[in-house]
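3.2 Worked example (two chains)
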Amino acid sequence: MTTETHRASTETESEHLGDGLLRRAADLRNRFLVTLPFTVIVLGLSMVPALQFSGWQWVVAFASLPVVIWGAAPFHRAAFQAGRHGSSTMDTLVSLGVIASSLWSWYALVFGGAGMLGMRMHMSLIPARSHATHAEIYFEGACAIVTFLLAGRLMEARTRYHSGDALRSLLELGAKDAILVEGSGSERTYRTIAASELAVGDRFQVRPGDKIATDGIVEEGTSALDTSLMTGESLPREVSPGSAVTGGTLNTSGALIVRATAVGSGTQLAHIGQMITEAQATKAPVQRLADRISSVFVPTIIALSLLTLAGWLLAGSGVQSAITAAVAVLVVACPCALGLATPTALLVGSGKAAQMGILISSAEVLERTRSIDTILLDKTGTLTKGTMSLESVILPDGSANSPDSQSSEDALSVTASLESASEHPIARALTAAARERDLSSHPVRELRNHPGLGVSALGEDGALLLAGRVSWLRELGIPLPPSALSAISEAEATGATVVASARVEGWQETSSAGDTASTQASQPADEDEDGGIIVDMAVGGMTCASCVRRVERKLGKLDGVHAQVNLATESARITLKHDYSDAELEEVVKAAGYEPQVRSRRLASAQAPAATLTPQTRELPEHLDGVLLGAFVVRDTVKESSKDAIAQLKALGITPTLLTGDHESAARFVASQVGIDSVIAGVLPADKRDAVMRLQEEGHQVAMVGDGVNDAAALAQASTQGLGIAMGSGADSAIAVADMTLVSSDPTMAAAAIRISRATLKVIKENLFWAFFYNVIMIPLAIFGLLNPMLASAAMAMSSVCVVLNSMRLRRAH
C-alpha cells in the first residue's frame, strides 16, 4: 500500500460512526410522520360511526395506499429479500399481514358489498360478531400495523444510535488537524494537514493546548499531557524524548515533536472504539437462543395462520371470518418484541458501560458475570496507587508520629532538602510531604549521591547530613537507639519501606582537585565570587519541566539575577547581584502564570552554592559520630476507593482475594486496610495463572483484576471460564487478553462492571419473558377469532415498545 493510499484509508472513524443509523432513523421518521395523518384519518373514520359520511370507506381505502405501499416499503423489501434466500423473518409476518388485510379489504369493497354508499361500520373487539350484512374491511388494521411498527422501529434506531454516544465521544477526542514537520535543522518546515493524512513515521508538532494527533514517540521537547478523558486520571503525565504518547490526549505546556507510530485504526483510541463495536456486534448465548426460536417461530406462525384459515372454512364459517382470523394470527404473532429483547438491552447496556468507562469485549461476557463467585485482585496499581507516600515519622525515642507533628516536621524539613534533587520515588514522596505541609527548605551544599545507599550533603553550618537506607547508616556507625530500631522493624514487618536521616557535627572533608572543580562548575555561572543575596521562594502551579524553564527564563531577564527552580518541591532559589524587592520578584513570577511567595532572604557566601546533586560519591569513614534525625515510613498508598470497592464486591456475593507478587507482610497490611480476608502473596506471573486454575478446578467461577504485564497470563486464564478485567492504566498485554477494560484506575469500577453486566442480563430475561408471555396469550385469541386485527397490531407494537422502554432503564444503571 502506498503512503497516500494508507493516509486516505485512515479517515477519522467518528465522522461516520452511526451515520447509517442516523440515515435509517431519518427515513423511518419521515415515513412515520407522513403515514401518521393518513392513519389517523383511516382510524377515525373506521372506528367512529359519527364521522362516517356517505362514501367514507372509499376515502379510507385511498388514504391507506400511501401507508401500506410507501410506509410499509421497508417491511416488504426485507420480506422479499429474505424470501429470495428461502428464509423468513419477523418482517415476513408484517408484510403478509399488511398485504392480506389490504387485499381482503379491497375485495370487500368491490365484491363483498362493503363499497355501497351509506354503509356504516363500528369498532368491535371480536370481529366474528361485528357485521353480518357485508364483508368487513380492515384498512385501519393494515395502517395501524405499519404506523405502530414504524414508531417502534424509529425508537429502536434512536436507541441504537444513542448507545454509541460513548464510542463517538471517545473517537471525537482525536485531533482534527496536525502540523506536519518536514526536513531538519535550518531547512525544517511546518505544514498543517488533516490528522487523518498522517502516516506511520511522519513527524508532527504539538503546540501547548493542542491535542496529540495520533499515537507516537516524543522526539523533541518536554511537556505534561492531560490524559483525564482517556484514563480518568486527573494528574498530568510528564513526557520527554522517548516517551510514548496517545492520540487524543491534550498537551498542556511545552511544544513537542512526535513521530507517529500508529494511525487510523491502529491507534489506541481506535482500538477502544473497536472493542465497543465488537462487544455490541457479538451475540450472547441468550441472544443466539432467541434467534433460533425466531427462525422456527416465523414459519410456525405462517403454518398456524393457514391452518386457522382452513379450520374456519371447514367449520362452515364465512370467508370473511376465516380471513379475519388468519390475518389476526399473522399480525399478533409478529415476534418483533422477541427480536428486540436481547439486542436492544445489549446495546443500551454496553453503551452505558462505555459511558462509565467500562469497555466490554463481547456480549458473552455479560452472561459469565452471573456466576462469578470469586474475584482475584492484584495489589500494585489496582488496590494501591503505585506511588509512594509518607505514612509516619519515627523519632529517635522510638515514637511513631504523624508527619504533621512539630517534631516530625523538623526532621522532614531537613531530609526533604537533602532529597529535593533526587527523582527516586521515595525521595519524591518525602519532598511531596514537605511541600504539602509548606515546610521551608534547609540550605545544603555539595550534594553527593551514593548509588543504592542514599545521599549526603553539607548543611549551612558545615555539618554532614545523611539520608538513605537504615542499613547504610548503621554501617557508617551512626548510633540508632534500640527503641527506634524496634519501631523501624515493626514498620518493615508490615511491608513498608523505611529510610532514615542523620546529622554529623564537626565534619571535615578533604576534597580532591577534581571534586573542587566539579563543585565550582555546579555553581551558577553568573553568581559572583563575593556572594550576593539568596532568596528562597515557593512557586505554586508548576506541573512540568517546561514550567521550570519558564520561571527561570522570566527571572533571568532581570539584571544580575540567576534562578534555580525545583519542580519536586515547587520552590526557587534566586541569587541576586542587585537588590530586588520581594514584591518585584513575585510580580515577575506572577506574570509567568504561577503563584509565588518569598519565604526567606539571606546573604550568600562564595562557599555556599545552591544544591546540585552530582554522581560523585563522598569518601566517608567507617565510623561516624552522628545522631539520628528521624526514620521515615514510606509505603505504596492504598487508593481511597479500594475499601469501598471491596465492600461493593462482597455485597454482590463475590469473595475477594488479594493476589500479589509482594511479600506476605506487605500484602497482609494492604488486605487489612481494604477489608480482604484471603491473601495469596509472593507469586510469580506463572503462579498467578496457576492460582486462577486451582480455584477454577475447585469449582469457583473466577474473575481476575490486574494491570501489569505480570497479570496477563492470569487474566487470560480467568477469561476461559470467568472474567479477566484489566485496568486501562495498565500494560497493553494485560488489556489485550481481558474481557473487560476499566478506562479509569478506580477499583470500584470492577464492581460497577459486574453490576451493569448483571443488570443487562436481567433486563434481557425480562424482555424475553414479556415477549413470550404476549405471544402465549394473544395467539390463541387470534386463532379463535376473538381479536380484531387492528387491536392485534396495536398490541404487537406496544409489546415492542415495552421491550425498548424496559431496555432504556439501563441508562439509569450505576
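3.2.1 Second chain
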Amino acid sequence: MASSGPTSGKKSLNTVTLLFKLPYYTQWGQSLLITGSEPALGSWNVKQGLSLSPVHQDNELIWCGKVSVAAAFTCEYKYYVVDDNKNVLRWEAGENRKLVLPSGVQEGDIIEIRDWWQDASEALFLRSAFKNVVFNATEGVKKESQSASLNKSLDPEDGLKLTYVGDSLWKAICVLRKSEFPVKYKYCQISQAGNSSLELGPNREVDIDLSSPKQSRYVVLSDGALRDEPWRGAGVAVPVFSIRSDEDLGVGEFLDLKLLVDWAVNSGFHLVQLLPINDTSVNGMWWDSYPYSSLSVFALHPLYLRVQALSDAIPADVKEEIQQAKKQLDKKDVDYEATLSSKLSIARKIFNLEKDKVLNSSSFKQFLSENEEWLKPYAAFCFLRDFFETSDHSQWGRFSQFSKEKLEKLISEGTLHHDVIHFHYYVQYHLYMQLSDAAAYARKKKVILKGDLPIGVDRNSVDTWVYPTLFRMNTATGAPPDYFDKNGQNWGFPTYNWEEMSKDNYGWWRARLTQMAKYFTAYRIDHILGFFRIWELPDHAATGLLGKFRPSIPLSQEEFLSEGLWDFNRMSRPYIRQEILEEKFGSFWTVIAANFLNEYQKQCYEFKEDCNTEKKIIAKIKTSPEKSLWLEKEDSIRRGLFDLLQNVVLIRDPEDPTKFYPRFNLEDTSSFRDLDEHSKNVLRRLYYDYYFARQENLWRQNALKTLPVLLNSSDMLACGEDLGLIPACVHPVMQELGLIGLRIQRMPSEPNTEFGIPSQYSYMTVCAPSCHDCSTLRAWWEEDEGRRSRFYKTVVGSDEEPPSRCTPEVVHFIVQQHFDAPSMWAIFPLQDLLALKDKYTSRPAPEETINDPTNPRHYWRFRVHVTLESLLDDKDIQATIKGLVTSSGRSFPGKKVEGADESGEKLSKVQLNGKA
C-alpha cells in the first residue's frame, strides 16, 4: 500500500515503523513527499525525501509512506508537492512540523502519523502579529482554558483536557480500547469561568483497521487549526509625517505613535499602518519627502526624531530653541526642509554636550555592535554626501568605488570628521530607541504596527554604493499605464539584478526584513507585482510608457517574418509625418521641426541626436538658445514631443536587435493606425500573447524563487499591494504563499468593472475605500459628478440624485460596507474615518490627498489638522468607529471571546496522541 523510503541505516535492536498519512488532492503528474531534518527523511534534500503513494479511501485520496527508524527518533519535517522529477511545485505553509514519538514504543511497533495539509491561511495566525500581539500568547497561556471532548455525547464536562505545550500547540494522550472505535469528537474551548464553546463544523472522526494483523498501536493525530468563524480585524492607516500632536516639532514623530495606538484601541482597532520610515535624504531638499526613495533601507529617517527626548539635561537655551521651532513649524502642512534642518541643528547641540556619556554607554555600544554592518557605511555615506555636496557617489573620486578598507579608514578614530560620523550613529541610536519604545507600547496594547517595504531604492543610495552588483544601474523601475497614470509611472529606481542576489540566497532582502521585524509585526509589500516581473525602463526615460517587463520572453524577428512583417524600422522607430506634426502643433509645427527634427525623406521626420530620448527633450527645452520661442508653451511642447517619441508599435531590445517588445497600448498610436489590416491583426495577436499569455509560467516561477525567501526571513504578517495590471499567475501564487492581497473599491481587479463590491471580496484580503496613492473618500466623491451618480446607482442601489457633498452619512455607508466585508482586515485612512463627523471636514477635501502618482515631484507633506490629544478627547467619534467594528463582528482589543482565553482563540493546533 505505502511506498518504502530511505532508512536511517542498519536496523537497531529497537526499530519501529513510521506510517505517514495525509489526505490531499493532486493534479495529474503531481505527487507528495516528505523531507525533514534527519537522514531517514532526506536531511531537507527534497530529491532524497520520503516519497508517498496515493490510496483511495471513501471519497478521499490519502497519501501514505513508511520508514523504519530508531525508537528514540525525533525530527522536523514538511510535506511537499513535486512533479515527476521531484521538482518542488509547492510546500505546506507554517513552521516545520516536530515529531517526538510516544514513550513506551517497542521493537516492531507501527506508529501511524495522520496529518492535515497546513494551509497558508491557517499559518497566518502563527505569525507574530497574531501570536505575540493580537492574541498576546507571550503574556502566558492559562493551560486549563481549553479541553477536547472525545465521547459521543460531546459533553465538555466529560471531555479530555488538553495541555498547552507552547508555540500555539495543545496536546493530549488518550488510551482507547479497540471496541471504542470509531471515535467521533470535537474540540471545545472552556473559559476560566467554565463557559464552553464547541468548534464549528462536523464531528471529527478517528478510526483504525481492526481487520489488519499489523494494526498500529499508536496513532498520532495532528488535527490542524481549531475550526471557528474566520477571524476579522480592523485598523487605521496614516503616515508618521501626517500625525499632529502637542509635543511634535513640525511633523509627526515616532513617539507620537503611542498616542495613535491609544486612539486606535479606543476606536476598536487592532492595527496601525504606516508608510515607509527609512531615511530618504538624497537631494537635501523637499524632494526627499518622497518616502519610497530610500537613501538607506536600514537607517531610520531623522525627520521622526523627538529632540526633547534626547536627554534629561537639555540646557535652557536649547529648550527655548525647541519651543521657538515648535511655534514656527506648527503649520498646516509639513515644511520638510525647515523641520529637518531644525531637528538636526538641535540634535547636534545636544550631541556635543553629551556625546561622551552616550557613546560610552553599554546600550549604545550594543546598538553599534548589532547594526554596524549597515550603520558604518550609512554614516560614511552621509559624511561624503555632505562633503562632496552630492549623493551621486560616482562623483566622489576615489570613494566612488566602495571597499571595506576605505570605509574603515574613513571612520577610524583620530580623523577630523570623527564627530560627524558619530553624530550619525547617535541620531540612529535615538531613532531606534524611540521607535522601539513605541513598538513595545503597541504590542502591549495588542495593536499591530504594520510597516511598508518599498519596491526600490534611490539610485544614489547607500545600498547602490555598497552593493552595486545587486542593481541594474542603467535601468529604471516603474509601472505601465494604469488607474494611476495613463502614461505609466517612472519611479527612477534601478531594477534589481536577481541573478546576482540569488547567489547568497537574497541576503540583502533577508537583512531588510530582519531589520523591519525589530519594530513591526506586519508589513505591506509595495508593488508585489515586481517580484513576479518588473516594468523596466531605460535610464534615459522620463515617463513610464516605453518599458518592457523583466523577466519576459520577447517577440522574435522570426515570429514577425513568418507572418509576413519585415519592416522593423517602420514599427520600432518613431513614426513622424508632416500631417501628424500639423495636427499636434498647428502652425507652430515648423518651429518644432526646425529645432528638434530632421527630415530624412519628404514629409518624414526623425529626432535629432541631441533630443532623441525623453530626458534629452526635457534638457533641450530648458537650455536651448531658442527656448524663448516656446517659453509659454513649454509643457504642451514637451508633451507633444513625448507623444512623437512614443509613437511606435515595437520597442527593440537594446542588447539584442532581433528581439522586440510591443509598446503598451500600441493601438492608441497613429503608427498603428496607419498600418495595413494584416499587420494590425498580427500585432494585436502578438501583443496579447506577450502581455497575457506567454509569460505566465516564467513569472510564476520567478515569484516562487524570491517571495518565499522574504516570507521566511521574519515572523511578520505579510500583505501584498497587488493593484494595477495583474497577471493571471499573481493571485494563485499569493494564495499559495499565504500573502494577503489589497482591495480598493475604486480600483477593482475584475475587468470591465468600475467599482468593487466589498461583500464579494475574498477572506485573504485587506479592504479599504482609499489609500495614500489616490484621493480621499471625500475628494473622490465630490470631484466627479458622473462617477458619483454611477456609484450611487450600482453600489448604493438608488436611482435618486446623490448628494454632491460627501456627508458623514455617505461616508458611514461606504465605510460600513468595508467593515462588513469578508476581508480579514479592513484598514481605513485616518482622513476617511474623520469624515464620519462634520467637525473634521472643514479642510478642503483635495488638500487631504497624500500623494498624486501622476506627479513625479509631488510634495509629500499632508498633516492631519487636528492633534491626537484632541482626537483622544473626542469620545463620540471613537464610540462611532468602535460601534462599526463591533456591529460588523470584527475583533477589537479587550474583546472577550465567549468560552476561550484569547491566546488560544484562533491559534489552537491540537495534536492528539492516541493509543489503542
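3.3 Remarks
The longest helix spans residues 362-388.
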